[in-house]
Each structure stands twice: as C-alpha cells, then as structure tokens.
Amino acid sequence: MLIYTLKRLAEALPTLLVVILLAFLLTRAAPGGPFDEEQAMPPEVRANLERSYGLDAPLHEQFLRYLGGLLRGDFGPSFTFKDYSVSELIAEGLPTSAALGGAALLLAVLAGIPLGLVAALRARGWLDRLAMGLAVGGIALPVFVIGPLLVLVFGVYLDLVPVAGWGEGAWLDRILPTVTLALPIVAYLARLTRGSVLEVLQSPFVMAAKARGVARHSLILRHVLPAAMVPVIGYLGPASAAILTGSLVVEILFGIPGIGRHLVMGALNRDYTLVMGMVILYASSMILANLVADLGCAAVDPRIRLGRRR
Amino acid sequence: MTRDRSLWAESVSRLLDHSAAVASLAILSAMVVAAVIGPWLSPHQAEVLDWSMMGAPPDLLSGHWMGTDRLGRDLLVRTLEGMRISLLIAVAAAIVSLVLGTLWGAIAGYSGGRIDSVMMRGVDVLFAMPTLFFVILLTTLFSRSPLLLIACIGLTGWLTVARVVRSETMALASREFIEASVACGARPAGVVFRHLVPNLAGTVVTYATLLIPQMILVESFLSFLGIGVQEPASSLGNLIAEGAAELDAAPWMLVGPAACLVLLVFCFNYLGDGLRDALDPRRRR
C-alpha cells in the first residue's frame, strides 16, 4: 500500500508541473498585458512597472522565480487588485468556497449512496423509480439550469429561502447553493451505486455467503456494500471536479464571496498572476481529489494493489 | 431468396424497435428544423426592439409566444437562434473531437508497441488535466473568435474517443480481412484509412450523438459565465444567464431557453443509447 501510494504521488507530481508550466506559458503568450489601459503610458513608466513586477526578466527566469514562490506558498502580487497579493485573495475566499464545496460533497454522499442502495435492494419499487428518474434528470440538468430553477421555485414562488447572498454564512442562505451544487452528483452517485450493488448481488461470493446462512443485514453491510463501493469511491475524484467547476456557476449565481469569481474575472482583466494562481489551485485540488479517490479504491479493493495498471 | 439481411438493415430495424430513440430522433429533427427555418418564418427579428412590449410575458395575441426580454426582443426568435448557434458549435466541436480522437486512437491502436504506449501515455496525462480550466483560460486570454471556441470545446472531448477507438482498432487489427490486406501489400496508412476507419464508423456515429450533448453543455457553461458566445448573438447558455438575472420579474426568460437545452440534451442522450444498442454487434438480442 505504501509503495502504491508513493508511486501514485510520483505520477501526480509531473502532471502538476505540466499544469503550472502550461498555465504560465498561456498567460505569457496571450496578446495584451495587464498594463494596457485606455491611456497610453510613457514607455519609462511602463518599463519601471514591468521591472517592479519582474516582467522584464527572461521567460525561464520568470518561471523559476514563480515556481520558487509557489513552494513558499507565494502566488505573487495581483495585477488588478492593487495592494492585494494573490495569496491574500485566495485566503480571503477559500474558506467560503471550501465550506460550500465540502458541504455539497457531504450532502451528495449522504443522499446519493443510500438512495442507490435502497433502489437496488428494492429494484422496480417506487423508490427505485424515484431514484432513477432523478438520475436521468441529473444528466441533462446542468448546475446553471438547476440553480435558477430551484431559486424560482423555493425562493420566488414559495418564498422559503433567500434567493441569493451568503450573509456571513447563515445556514438558511446556504441551503440552495449547497443543494444546487450537490444535486447532479447525488443523481450520478445514486445511479452508480444502484448498478454496482446489483452487479455485486449477482456475484459468486455473495451467493456463497447467502448459502452459508449469513443474515440479510450483515450480508448487505459487510459483504455487498464494501465491494460495491469500489466504482463509487473512484467516482469521487470526478465528483470533486464537478463540484469545483459547478462552484464557479453557483458562486456567481448566488453572489457568494468565494474564489470562483476570481478565475473568470481575473482572466477577463488579464490578471496573469491571479488567473495562474486560480488555475493551479483548481488543478491541484482536482489532481489531489483523484489521487485520494484512487487510494480509497485501493484500500477497499485488494485486487488494485496487487495488479498492475489496467 | 434467403432472408439474409445486410448489417445496416438489421441495425436500422433494431433502432426502430427502440421507441425512446425514435421519439428522440423525431423531436430532435423538429427542433433542428425549427432552429434553422423558424427565425426566418417568424414576423419578429432577433435584434429588433419592440418598444411597446418590453419584458412582456408570453402571449399568443401579441405574437410574442414566449414573451420578450428586457429590451423588447422576441424570445421565441432569440431562443431559436440561440439553439441554432449552440447546435452549430456543438456539432462542429464534436467533429473536431471525433476526427482527432479517431485518428489518434486508430494510429495508436494499429501501430502498437512503443508508438502506442507513448501516444496513450499522452492521453493519460491529458486526462488528469482539468481541461475545462484551460478552456476558460484560452477563450478569455485570446481573441473571442467562434473558431477558437469550437476548437477549445472540441479539445475537451477527444480523449475518450481516442481510448475507445484504440481498443476497437486493436480488436479489428487481428481480424482476417486486415491480415489479408497486409498480405496483399497494403501500406500501413492505407490499412488505417481504407480498412480500419470505415469499420469504426458505427462506434464513431454512436460517440458523435453522445458527444454533441456534452459539447452543448460545455458551450452553454462557458456562455453562461460570459466567456462563450458574445452578445448580440445568443446561445442557450447566455439566454439562460440573462433569464437567471431576471428571475423574479420575468421567469419566462429562464424557463423557455432552459427547457430547450434540457430537451436537446435528453434527446441526444436517448438517441445515442439507442444507436449504441443498434450498432454494437455484441449487444445483439
């Protein structure tokens, strides 16, 4: 297990480096710079500005300096938010975004897996139909459609919850954004769990356990569920990715002061360092989530550790 | 004559048995026709402001069947034009994905050995990359041209195609007709383009119908964020964004475009499922 973990870590590092390098090169190759404003500035002022931000050095030097900063947790100064460093902007918004994303992931797991399990055990019952109807809807309803529709129904017509805002994180304000973010993942998890449990129920070792006279609840909880969880845990990597991209939409939709808006606004303003910081942050959380999901699979399924890849 | 039927005739009859797929195909055809000729038939134009009807709800008498937006533009026409643009971008992006993915997968799968492992290793690395964030970077940093948008969206889809096509190719490559053409002296490029790629057509067609809804969703996502299709052109994504902003005053601005998007994605998914069942010989009932 240790060797497997180290191997996966060693594989993730180059990917991360490629992400950083690509983001760096893309922002530098883009036409237009952070100091292009309506009024042309004198070349001397421009040169001074560029020197103070280190933009006059050769490209590889800029990259190495940036990489060194990253290792110390320094993403550099923001070009458009004067007096703010990118790290400060991240530190300001990250707790909010993390709280939102974490709550959505938790909700998705707590709702999706039991729903799928019950649907599989009562195949063709009403709960099964409900779960699968939800799952089909989850495929075709992206976050930017579910969100406004939920607001329309629960915020405008029924007037149960606020339509937008975060209000220092009052829990009533958190309900809609969290549910919006979680719903597509609930749908997918339910469908995945259902399929996986049905497949495991057919497998020889479950038949053997049944034949040994294992009681039904312990059969389900001790034999079926752990085996059925392998693809589900594997999906938690992509699920985290869905939450990260979904949070871009949800934060804009509900006016939540997280980090999601910095990615889009930063790119529109050509704020090199801010955009790079955001892309690197999002990319590394995604790579990390995939790594954790893979390790989780390996922990549940002994075949993965022994076998080679694919 | 014996009742031998061609592979195609059999596939078509299998597809026709799949009622959800047939219904989806009918709805999709109707939507495509409406998107193409609808704006042209309507008395209203997408960019003409109706000053007497700003933010009017849907009303059959006024001629604005889906209402108007804040500026008095007819929403039915805007939605149809949005659908046309969304479909156009999605189909073009799906073609980009399919061509790239099919060539990549077919070449890797047929070459085998070191070329194969290097090519597929590249796909693995790209798979671990959060492509969508780079698409956001690309579309915002560089010019907002529709072509770049199409290429970027297409780039999000080709990896899966490459994997599927590679494994199909490897299965095909060991078949007799490929061996026969090699024995007849066909060059590798000839084998790939003349014999392998045509036999991959079923897989590729199925994937196309499953890719298009994905591409529609990516395009709408970008347009929703304001970095996809730009005003005054409409796409389903930015119509939904406009509707979401006017939610309490003019809910019809959200509901119409959102319903079209959901219907499109649903139908393409069902049609894709049906095609997969019909064209995949291993799934024969």
Could you walk me through the main structural features you see in this protein, from its secondary elements to its overall organization?
The complex is a heterodimer of chains A (310) and B (285). In chain A, α4 packs across α7. Helix content of chain A is 77%, strand content 0%. Chain A is an all-alpha fold. Chain A has twelve helices and no strands. Chain B has 285 residues and is mostly helical. In chain B, 72% of the residues lie in helices and 0% in strands. Chain B contains twelve helices and no strands. The longest helix of chain B has 37 residues. Chains A and B meet through α1, α5, α6, α9 and α10 of A and α5, α10, α11 and α12 of B.
Task: Name a few traits of the molecule.
heterodimer, A: 310 residues, mainly alpha, 12 helices, flat, B: 285 residues, MetI-like fold, 0% strand
Question: Gist?
Answer:
The complex is a heterodimer of chains A (310) and B (285). Chain A is an all-alpha fold and 310 residues long.
End-to-end distance of chain B: 24 Å
- Poorly predicted runs of chain B are none
Number of strands of chain B: 0
Task: Report Rg of chain A.
Answer: 24 Å
**Largest sheet data of chain A:** none
According to CATH, the homologous superfamily of chain B is MetI-like
> Number of helical segments of chain B?
12
What spatial form of chain B do the alpha-carbon principal axes imply?
Answer: elongated
Query: Ends of chain A: how far apart?
Result: 17 Å
N-to-C order of helices and strands of chain B: HHHHHHHHHHHH
The helix/strand class of chain A is: mainly alpha
Strand content of chain A: under 5%
User: At the first level of CATH, what is the class of chain B?
Assistant: Mainly Alpha
- Counted by DSSP, the helix tally of chain A is 12
Q: Write down the domain tally of chain B.
A: 1
What is the subunit organization of this protein?
A: heterodimer
